[in-house]
Amino acid sequence: MLLSIITFLPVALALILWAIASEKTAKKWTLAFTILEFAASLLMFLYFKPGVAGLQLVERHAWIPSIGVDYFLGVDGLSFWLILLTTLLTPLALVGAWTSVNKREKTFCLTLLFLESTMVGTFVSMNSILFYCFFEASLVPMYFMIGIWGGPRRLYATVKFFIYTMAGSIFMLLGIIALMLIYAKTFGHISGDIPDFYKLHGHLPFVAGTFISTQTLLFFAFSIAFAIKVPLFPFHTWLPDAHVEAPTPGSVILAGVLLKMGTYGFLRFSIPIFPEASEHWAWVFLLIGVFGIIYGALVAMVQPDMKKLVAYSSVSHMGYVIIGLFAMNPQGVTGALYQMLNHGVSTGALFLLVGMIYERTHSREIKDYGGLASAAPIFTIFFLIVTMSSIAVPMTNGFVGEFLILLGTFEANKIVAAFAVLGVILGASYMLWMVKKIFFGKPSGVVTKPHDKGLDLCPREIAILVPLIILIFWMGLYPNTFLKYSQASISQLVNHRGHYQLVSTRTAAKHSERPLTRAFVGPVAQMSKEANLR
Question: How many CB atoms are located within 10 Å of the residue 144 CB?
Fold first, then answer.
């Protein structure tokens, strides 16, 4: 029952909020409710066994058995931390909107709670139709969040966001229907369960070097849907518009969680269900991923708007996740999953920080700033720490993820790895350029104007950022605290691609594989090992 509680508790609390809360008290109630949801998600630590590769906390009930649709929930190492990331970022995003969202506050809170439920539901769904329902349902609250509480061009941004993602999802729906029909023809009964689709290995014809094969067509049907959600170049154009027009909590949730639905889809569907096609066409995604890394960084370098710069940095960072996934080795996939978490923490924090300073100055133009470090020293410290995480400075979380990705990519394709390293340099260039322009030099522009509450952070804002700063250093110094929960699932996915069977927790597998982090040599790994021994 735990996964059902975590999934639908926000919806139940939204109904309570609608019944009892007023406009003035809605945010307080919602904060209490989202903290309660986060506490409920922490209960997974009591029941989740890190060494088990298969599904755990399984819940299964007949829903529409005539068409193979069951209410089927489960969690494994691929989704465990994504669920916790969702439940952590939601209350932080809400507190970040405490003063910026000041109209229709109750409606905003209801929208946020429904959005949280759809995001969690996406990560725990183990039936493809149920997954599709949650995946698509997440569009609706985000559509309203940007469309009602967004910026001047919010209608354009919401329509573009909705059309792009909805169009991509149609390909996924067609792919799901095709897989269900193939499964019924192969095994004599219909099923939409994702683990059952893994059994189709050997029953999906594949012809190398051509698109005209069942496995290749289905692989690209799913991959297009997930590529738009990530988003990968050239499907990325909806993202900067959505980020710029979204309110601060919308940007935090969009960057922190919604983009991860796309990369999670590659892990859950594209790679294990279509192993030959994934391996044969991996070069396409390695090429697109590394192009996105460099393209996103170069475009970010010329952005005059802070929020748009961070949005294009997301395009670049998600390119690293893609090349890690399609390196198809333990180091690359481990780094990709870790980078998904890193990006949620660091980019979520960046959007919070940009929103905080925008509330005071009402400007996101980089040229309007200068010398902010002297006027807002606490804000400067937090921004610098998050920037160090974003550019992968050692001892921060970003370093661990990017190092593992580059290590895995170098093993798979040295040329792609060489260009990906160039992206690290470019990333440092545009982020440090922004820091220099905004924080240093002689105070000028909006920094010299009088402000009612000053430019530095208040206690509420510091309280929002402290958990994220703790995670940045914790994940950077002790990565195995997090990696050990995903190790078994990733090992099974990589080593037995095409034969990936998710097992019940009743048959607790005894794994003796070499640790995936063994390849991560250096002081960070050594510190993690020593800490675990103590």
Answer: 19
Please name the residues in contact with 132: beta carbons below 8 A apart, sequence gap of 6 or more. Answer: 169, 172, 173, 176
Could you read off the pLDDT of 217-248 as tens digits, one per residue? 999 999 999 999 988 988 888 888 888 888 88
What is the 8-class DSSP label of residue 188? Answer: S
Distance from C-alpha of 529 to C-alpha of 210, rounded to nearest angstrom = 46
Dihedral of CA atoms 60, 262, 430, 97 in degrees, nearest 10, equals -50
463 contact partners, CB below 8 Å, separation of at least 6 = 95
SS3 131: helix
Contact between 246 and 150 (Cβ < 8 Å): yes
| Contact (CB, 8 A) for 33 and 484 | no
Quick check: helix, strand or coil at residue 37?
Answer: helix
Q: Is 107 helix (H, G, I), strand (E, B) or coil?
A: helix
The pTM (predicted TM-score) of the whole model is 0.89
Q: What angle do CA 494, 500, 501 make, to 5 degrees?
A: 145
For 507, phi and psi rounded to 5 degrees? -105, 70
Contact predicate 408/335, CB 8 Å: yes
Tokens encoding 163: 């059309």
Res. 519: pLDDT tops 50: no
Residue 445: left if φ>0, alpha if ψ -120 to 50, beta else—which one?
A: left
Q: Of 291, 316, 341, 330, which is closest to residue 80 (Cα–Cα)?
A: 341
For residue 242, give the nearest of 170, 311, 314 by alpha carbon: 311
Strand partners, 127: 193
Instruction: Single out the residue of 497, 372, 349, 391 nearest to residue 446, CA to CA.
Output: 372
The tokens describing 23, both together, are 């406009």
Backbone angles phi, psi at 64, to 5 degrees: -130, 75
β-pairing verdict for 56-64 and 69-75: antiparallel
Rg for the chain (alpha carbons), in Å? 22
- Could you tell me which residues are beta bridge partners of residue 240? none
> What is the tens place of the pLDDT at every residue in 74-130?
999 999 999 999 999 999 999 987 877 788 889 999 999 999 999 999 999 999 999
The pLDDT tens digits of the residues spanning 300-353 come to 999 999 999 999 999 999 999 999 999 989 999 999 999 999 999 999 999 999
Q: Are 504 and 55 in contact (CB under 8 A)?
A: yes
Phi, psi of 49 (to 5 degrees): -105, 110
